[in-house]
């Protein structure tokens, strides 16, 4: 059967944009190297033209330089054409990469949209509202429990606001009756009948010497110094 119809040839995949761009860049680099070599050769011919006198020898050098210059112009044209092709391939590559990125973005968005729809089916607004209502009820019950636990004991039930104000007025009246002597409240004043010297067992005030006379005091209440001691 293969001899009659022939065997199917294995076709190679077409080159990608990157492969084509790499191949053209490689050719461009090769042409650029040739142009550099021609530049070196032209520099040599220029030095020879400067050193030779006008005549047949100089004209021959000029002819060779002209031929090299034409080759250089040809290679420069090829180089520019290859660079233009590379630029076009780069633009196509950028466009292709942009389309791939857009395609991947759309695929990701579709997948996320599908997941969100599935999640929204499990979450309902009515369930959220019911949960919020239950939380509010639980908070109210918690507040009532705290108030109940914080209730005071042994407080007469028959005490109203009028009784409370009466108690406060009586307390204020009792505090107003406390007289003050020399700016000191009565509860801070010492008892007149209490003898602090006897309670503290303090020694008597010393007198002036063994003569039994009380030592004279100056205007500040301190023992007066005898005049004889002042005269020195």
Offer a concise description of the structure.
It contains seven helices and two strands, in the order H-H-H-H-H-E-E-H-H. With 232 residues, the protein is an all-alpha fold.
Task: State the order of secondary-structure elements, H for helix, E for strand.
Answer: HHHHHEEHH
**Which spans have pLDDT < 50 for at least 5 consecutive residues?**
208-212
Task: Determine Rg (CA atoms, Å).
Answer: 60 Å
Number of helices: 7
Estimate the helix proportion, in percent.
55-70%
Could you give the count of β-strands? 2
In spatial order, strands of the major sheet run 1-2
* CATH class term of the domain at 15-109: Mainly Alpha
Major sheet details: 2 strands, antiparallel
- Helix/strand-derived category reads mainly alpha
Shape: elongated
Q: Judging by the overall fold, what is the CATH architecture of the domain at 15-109?
A: Orthogonal Bundle
User: Mean pLDDT score, rounded?
Assistant: 76
The amount of beta strand, in percent, is: under 5%
Straight-line distance between termini: 160 Å
According to CATH, the fold-level topology of the domain at 15-109 is Helix Hairpins
């Amino acid at each position: 059967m293969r001899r009659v119809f022939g065997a199917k040839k294995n076709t190679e995949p077409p080159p990608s944009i990157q492969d084509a761009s790499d191949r053209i860049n490689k050719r461009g680099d090769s042409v650029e190297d040739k142009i550099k070599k021609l530049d070196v050769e032209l520099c040599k011919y220029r030095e020879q033209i400067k050193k030779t006198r006008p005549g047949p020898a100089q004209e021959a050098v000029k002819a060779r330089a002209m031929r090299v210059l034409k080759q250089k112009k040809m290679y420069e044209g090829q180089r520019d054409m290859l660079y233009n092709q590379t630029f076009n391939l780069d633009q196509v590559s950028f466009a292709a990469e942009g389309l791939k990125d857009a395609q991947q973005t759309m695929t990701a968005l579709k997948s996320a949209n599908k997941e969100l729809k599935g999640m929204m089916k499990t979450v309902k607004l009515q369930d959220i509202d019911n949960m919020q209502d239950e939380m509010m009820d639980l908070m109210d019950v918690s507040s009532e429990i705290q108030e109940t636990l914080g209730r005071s004991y042994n407080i007469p039930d028959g005490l109203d606001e009028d009784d409370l104000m009466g108690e406060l007025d009586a307390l204020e009246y009792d505090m107003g009756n406390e007289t003050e002597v020399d700016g000191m409240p009565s509860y801070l004043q010492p008892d007149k009948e209490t003898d602090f010297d006897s309670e503290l067992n303090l020694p008597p005030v010393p007198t002036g010497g063994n003569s039994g006379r009380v030592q004279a005091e100056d205007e500040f209440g301190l023992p007066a110094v005898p005049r004889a001691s002042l005269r020195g």
